[in-house]
């Protein structure tokens, strides 16, 4: 009986180990969704508030193949690149102008750039998985936190659905710590635009109700300034211009008569 219990325990343990090993194998075999168009990847990184990971390679590069077979199949590296970055793959032999613009001198070269296009890290040559993971995590430490990227995306969706009551608190929460991350710069710009549009609509309704003409809405040092003009004031200014024109016409006629001429 004791041996039967031992055998059952051994088989259960072996089955669990095989299940874990197979799950890791599936995770490693799942390919990374590499982007291949530079402009499209940059736009996606900006819209999602994610940093950009660029790998520049050539087919004849041995170390590029080592990188693909090892570190870029590592579960920790794959998870970071698939969830926290926009991965971009560039064949250097087919993109000579881009290679020149990025100052690529060797293959492979990996570039980590912030959402606003600033280069954070420029890695030439082969890197082991731990070193590459460390570089990716360091980039994320100064880049956008997960919750900020998530909330910014949620606010963009809310604005698209005209749900400003949901979007505005999300954007304000992103700005709370007062730092100047790229996603916070974008959040501030979007929030300012929403406030300006809301103020414009409010003032338009106010002007229509009280008989004012809305002239201009501007923001100076965070304060909103408004210029409006009443219909009565516009009417008075209009007649002032007419009277001024009549007086000018009378003076012109008197001048002509003094010279023996006659005007119209």
What report would you give on this structure?
With 264 residues, the chain is an alpha+beta fold. Among the domains are: 115 residues, Glutaredoxin (3-Layer(aba) Sandwich), CATH 3.40.30.10; 64 residues, no CATH class. The chain is built from ten helices and six strands; from the N terminus they run H-H-E-H-H-E-H-E-E-H-H-H-H-E-E-H. Strands 2-1-3-4 form a four-stranded mixed beta sheet, with helices on both faces. Strands 5-6 form a two-stranded antiparallel sheet. Strand 3 and strand 4 form a beta hairpin. The longest helix has 29 residues. The chain is elongated. The protein starts with a helix and ends in a 6-residue tail after the last helix. The N terminus is likely disordered.
The largest β sheet comes out as: 4 strands, mixed
Oligomerization state: single chain
Q: Judging by the overall fold, what is the CATH architecture of the domain at 28-142?
A: 3-Layer(aba) Sandwich
CATH superfamily of the domain at 28-142: Glutaredoxin
| Helix run count | 10
Query: Helical amount among residues, as a percent range?
Result: 55-70%
Compute the separation of the termini in Å.
130 Å
**Protein structure class:** alpha+beta
TL;DR?
The protein has 264 residues and is an alpha+beta fold. The chain has helices at 2-29, 38-48, 62-69, 75-84, 96-101, 129-142, 146-160, 164-174, 182-210, 231-258; strands spanning 52-57, 86-91, 109-113, 119-124, 212-220, 223-230. Strands 2-1-3-4 form a four-stranded mixed β-sheet, with helices on both faces. Strands 5-6 form a two-stranded antiparallel ribbon.
């Amino acid at each position: 009986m004791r041996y039967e219990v031992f055998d059952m325990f051994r088989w259960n343990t072996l089955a669990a180990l095989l299940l874990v090993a197979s799950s890791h194998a599936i995770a490693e075999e799942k390919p990374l969704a590499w982007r291949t168009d530079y402009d499209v990847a940059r736009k996606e990184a900006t819209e999602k508030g994610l940093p950009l990971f660029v790998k520049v390679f050539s087919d004849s590069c041995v170390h590029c193949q080592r990188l693909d077979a090892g570190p870029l199949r590592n579960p920790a590296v794959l998870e970071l690149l698939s969830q926290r970055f926009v991965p971009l793959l560039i064949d250097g032999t087919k993109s000579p102008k881009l290679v020149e613009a990025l100052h690529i001198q060797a293959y492979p070269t990996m570039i980590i750039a912030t959402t606003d296009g600033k280069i954070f890290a420029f890695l030439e040559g082969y890197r082991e998985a731990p070193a590459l993971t460390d570089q990716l995590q360091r980039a994320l430490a100064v880049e956008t936190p997960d919750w900020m990227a998530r909330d910014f995306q949620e606010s963009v969706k809310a604005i698209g659905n005209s749900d400003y009551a949901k979007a505005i608190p999300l954007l304000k929460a992103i700005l709370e710590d007062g730092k100047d991350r790229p996603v916070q710069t974008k959040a501030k710009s979007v929030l300012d635009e929403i406030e300006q549009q809301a103020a414009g609509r409010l003032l338009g309704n106010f002007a229509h109700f009280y008989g004012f003409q809305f002239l201009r809405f501007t923001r100076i040092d965070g304060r909103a300034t408004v210029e409006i003009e009443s219909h009565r004031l516009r009417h008075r200014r209009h007649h002032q211009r007419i009277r001024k024109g009549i007086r000018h016409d009378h003076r012109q006629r008197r001048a002509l008569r003094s010279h023996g001429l006659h005007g119209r």
